[in-house]
Structure formats: C-alpha cells, structure tokens
Amino acid sequence: MLDDQDDRRLVQTLELAQGGAGRVEPNPQVGAVIVQAGEVIATGFHRRYGEAHAEAEALARAGSAARGGVLYCNLEPCSQGGPGKHQPPCVEAIIAAGISRVVVGQQDPNPAVRGRGIGRLREAGIIVDCADDPAPFFRHNRAFNTTMALGRPFIHLKCAISLDGRLATARGDSRWITDERARAEVHRLRGSCDAVLVGRKTAERDDPLLTVRDAPLPPRGQPRAIVLDSQARLSGESALVTHRAGELLLCVSAGAPAPSVQALRERGVTVLTCREDPHRGLDLEDLLLNLGNQGISSILVEGGGQVITSFLRAGLYDRFTAYVAPLVLGAGREAVGDLGILEVDGAVAFEAVRWRSIGDQQCFDGYRRGWAGEIAAASRAGGG
C-alpha cells in the first residue's frame, strides 16, 4: 500500500512524461523522480526516441546524491539490452546508483520485459512497490500498452451527434452539429493519434483532409489518413488523393479492380489489401494487423456510422468519445446501427467514464469495459 507522498510523486512522473509526447513514439512516455529524505533531488523524462530514458536522465542529474534514495517512475524500468536497443538497461543503472527503493506506476506489458525489470531490482536487494491502481498509467501510454498487450493499434472511436444520436440529417447535412470549441478538441484528438480513419462514403460525402488545423500540430507532424474502400472507388479528385496521397492508406479487398488500384498507387497512395468478410466488408482484425505493420499504433475512427458500428460489433475498440449537441434532428443518419443486442445486460459498457460540458454541449469519454484489466493481465504474464 502506497502513502500520499508515493501517490503524489507518481502523478508527477506522468506530468514529466508528457514532455515526450509526439517525440518518443513508438516508445512509451516515461517520467522519473528521485527523492532523498522526503525531498525531490532530481527529475527526468524520456525526451526523444533513441535518447536517454527517464530513469537514466534523473540518475545523471542526481549523481552520488541518489544513493539510498527512492526512484519513482510511471513504467517498470527496462531490463533488456542488445541489438535494436538504443540505450542500456535502466535497471543496471538504478542498481549501480545505489537506489534503495523503486516505485512504479505499472508493470511493462512488453513481452521482452513483463516483470523482468522488477525481478532484477528485487534480486539486487532493492525494494519495489507498484501503484495500487495502475489504470491511470495504462491510459497515459494507451497506444503503447494496447500494442504490446493486445497486438494491435489502440482504437479510439469518435462522433459528433445530436440528442437523438444522429450524425447528420436525412439529406446528409452535418455542418455543423457541434461548435468550433468541440471541433478544436477533435483536432487535438487527431494530433494525439498516428492516423485518422473514415469509410469511403464519408470521404466522398464530406471530402475531408483529416488533418490537425484548429490545434497545435504535434512534433511528429500530421497523422496519416486511412480510408476503408473495399472496391477502390475513392475519386482521384478527392481532397485526400489530391493533397495527401503520400500520407493516405487505402484499405481494399482482394477483389478490388486492378486498374483502380493501380491508378491510385500511381498517384502515390499506399494501397493495403485486406481480407474481406462476405457479409460485413473488410475483416477488421486483418485490417488492424496490416495497419500495425505500417507502424501505426493508434487510430482515431471518425466514421461514418457504418464504420463505427463495425468496430463496436467486432469489439475492436478501446475508447469512445462522443460530442453531444443540444439539437434534435429526427430522421437522419445514425451514429450506431444494429449491434445485435437483445438484452440490456448485453449493452456496450464503459469504464473510466467522464462527462463534461463544452459550452452548451456535453462530451462523453470512456474506455471499453475490461480494457484496463486486459492490459494488467498481459503485464503480469511474465511475473514480477
């Protein structure tokens, strides 16, 4: 059981870790704090991919004063070295520095670590304690944790809807259901993900760029754009092809017409061939495997309704954010279609739920119920 100071220092590690956002990926964001006699003597964070880890930076700043101190970090220190590793194992630096106790926010779900870092520290006689509730730490590095634990990208569903759950009117008009404040938040969500995904119908109807414009652009640049288009029908005149062909991933089925596929490839579009479910379109599990192979670890799914419904039906989602405007549209395009749910007990449910106001609008945000438990189970698989 941790005390109040432990909890405060662990929160501080998350604040420090945020400094690496958009710079350290695909590595996780990590912060470290070293305390001696109740006082912070050094801090550090992982600043950029390939550079010093948070623990190493904090230890270097503390120098010999670290001996006998307590080190806090939001993620289990790494223990592996060898080819492909840019930095030496942090556990060895911690042991050499004479740290007496380590407090971590979460164990590492990376199969190469999974408790080995904690085990090595304990073998060296160092006391290791873990946060009572690791869920906030899982959520901070949600893409890394999901990729390592579940073997696929983190999927964040997002929609802007009326009170009666409509994405658009019966004629397809959706501009604008929510105001500029909500739209600015969506642009920040885009900036936090590796890619933004829509279906072909949405790409044609709205002709979006799927870029970050009304929020600061992250250091890693614009997210990639993904369009689900089993028959490669996306127009070569669309904004995505015209202005973002080099950043566009078009996901098609093996049955897509070869001339259409070739024409899009000649424009610079990356075309990925995915398996197809004869009744439900592209196979989402195969789709996510293909996208993961492209280095994508987090995806914001913006619609339309059929696409959102497909991810919900398949259970392949991790977070859902809905911006709800004080409007009623009546007949129109629904955000979520039939999920085959016949009993309330079978409803889609969420954890870590937050409701908040944005002017006269409401924002719902929650994680798939069971998501944190799955990350925890994977993190414990290696012991520790």
UniProtKB/TrEMBL annotation:
**Which residues participate directly in catalysis?**
E55
Q: Which InterPro entries match?
A: CMP_dCMP_dom, Cytidine_deaminase-like, DHFR-like_dom_sf, Eubact_RibD, RibD_C, RibDG_C, Riboflavin_Biosynth_HTPR
Q: What is its EC number?
A: 3.5.4.26, 1.1.1.193
Q: Which UniProt keywords apply?
A: Hydrolase, Metal-binding, Multifunctional enzyme, NADP, Oxidoreductase, Riboflavin biosynthesis, Zinc
Q: Does the keyword Repressor apply?
A: no
Specify the CMP/dCMP-type deaminase domain's residue ranges.
4-129
Q: Name one GO biological process term.
A: riboflavin biosynthetic process
Query: Can you tell me which residues bind NADP(+)?
Result: A160, W176, T202, S230, G304, G305, Q306, V307, I308, T309, S310
Q: Where does Zn(2+) bind?
A: H53, C78, C90
SUPFAM superfamilies linked to this entry: Cytidine deaminase-like, Dihydrofolate reductase-like
Which Pfam families is this protein grouped with? dCMP_cyt_deam_1, RibD_C
Q: Which domain of life is it from?
A: Bacteria
Keyword check for ATP-binding: no
Function of the molecule: Converts 2,5-diamino-6-(ribosylamino)-4(3h)-pyrimidinone 5'-phosphate into 5-amino-6-(ribosylamino)-2,4(1h,3h)-pyrimidinedione 5'-phosphate.
Task: Give the UniProt family note.
Answer: In the N-terminal section; belongs to the cytidine and deoxycytidylate deaminase family. In the C-terminal section; belongs to the HTP reductase family.
Q: How is this protein named in the record?
A: Riboflavin biosynthesis protein RibD
Q: Which organism is it from?
A: Alkalispirochaeta sphaeroplastigenens
Q: What is the lineage of its organism?
A: Bacteria, Pseudomonadati, Spirochaetota, Spirochaetia, Spirochaetales
